[in-house]
Amino acid sequence: MPVSWTPHTVTTVETVDPHPVAALSALFDDGMSAIGPGDALPPLWHWVALARWPVSSELGVDGHPARGSFLPSVELRRRVFAGGEVVFHAPLTVGATIRRESRVESVTEKAGRSGRLVVVVVATRLYDEHDRLALEERQDLIYRDPAPVPSAADIDIPAAQAPVGAPFSRAGEWEWDLATDPTLLMRFSAATSNPHRIHYDWPYATRVEGYPGLVVHGPLMTLALAEVLRLEKHDLTIARLRHRNRRPLFCGQAARLRRVEDAPLTLGLFARDAGEPCTTVTIEGIAHA
After folding, report:
1. H-helix or E-strand containing 223?
2. Cβ distance 152 to 207 under 8 Å?
3. Among candidate residues 12, 23, 19, the one with its CA nearest the CA of residue 220
4. CA-CA-CA-CA torsion sign (215, 280, 73, 57)
5. Is there a contact between 244 and 187 (Cβ–Cβ < 8 Å)?
6. Which residue would you say has higher pLDDT here, 237 or 258?
């Protein structure tokens, strides 16, 4: 990090935008009721409703805004959305005006099993139209060196895939299959204004960052787990939600969403034949409405 970089709070006034909310509903295509102006956002849908579009001249090589302004100038190329925590104080409604305050809380360099890495923690607070605290969030971002570029023999995930249709299908009680394809990933990138090239640029993902295929977004996996609560019609109020991305899921890989614990309620997304989940969501402070 350059000495010139110092953390600072960015404050913006924004609208809980109904258009990307409708886009996510169309993408999920799961038969749930449409969410429109005046409705409360489901858990984590603020990632879509309050997405930010960076101007083109600010983008770096990986597609994200170049580091050194809000985020520190970490030199490590590979960026991972590692997880975080959201505390819900009051509902956010579609169409409402909110105030957002975001700040980098910490930057920590560590030595991991795969080499050097940097953990950046970003804290955000959202205030509703009455200036009441509605939501507090912590996001953990990890930066590391790219993996070695895989050989053609190691890339067994097809680059060309037909659209899968509706991505959710029931597999059992509290079990849902999640199917992905490049079109789904592109639509999610557009809905969340996520320009990270690993999700839509096959040559960049495989030849530059060393992945075996397009990477399913960490927020998409997390939102899919949260959507299971709605699919199961589990009528509850969520006070706190912790999420963790443990390993990547690649576009086209079969994945299953299922409940893994009851107290606290924990959901996991598992790739086929994997004993450990790619992503987990743990929900606390549940009170029935």
Report:
1. helix 218-231
2. no
3. 23
4. positive
5. no
6. 258
Inter-residue contact 127 to 143 (CB < 8 Å):
no
CA separation (Å) from 54 to 60, 66, 110, 272?
11, 10, 29, 36
Q: Is the per-residue pLDDT at 73 higher than 90?
A: no
pLDDT above 70: residue 8: yes
Rounded-to-integer distance, Cα 53 and Cα 31, Å: 29
Cα 257-195-126 angle, rounded to 5 deg: 70
Integer Cα distance of 135 and 86 in angstroms: 7
- Contact between residue 242 and residue 85 where contact means Cβ atoms under 8 Å apart: yes
C-alpha separations of 233 from 226, 229, 249, 283 in Å:
12, 6, 26, 15
Q: Tokens 């930066």 appear where?
A: 143
Q: Are strands 97-112 and 115-127 parallel, antiparallel or unpaired?
A: antiparallel
What's the confidence (pLDDT) of residue 2?
43
Choose between 181 and 147: higher pLDDT.
181
Query: 120: which 2 tokens?
Result: 């950046």
Q: Return d(Cα 237, Cα 46) in angstroms, integer.
A: 16
Instruction: Quickly count: other Cβ atoms within 10 Å of residue 14's Cβ.
Output: 15
CA of 142: how far to CAs of 76, 78, 210, 289, in Å?
9, 8, 16, 37
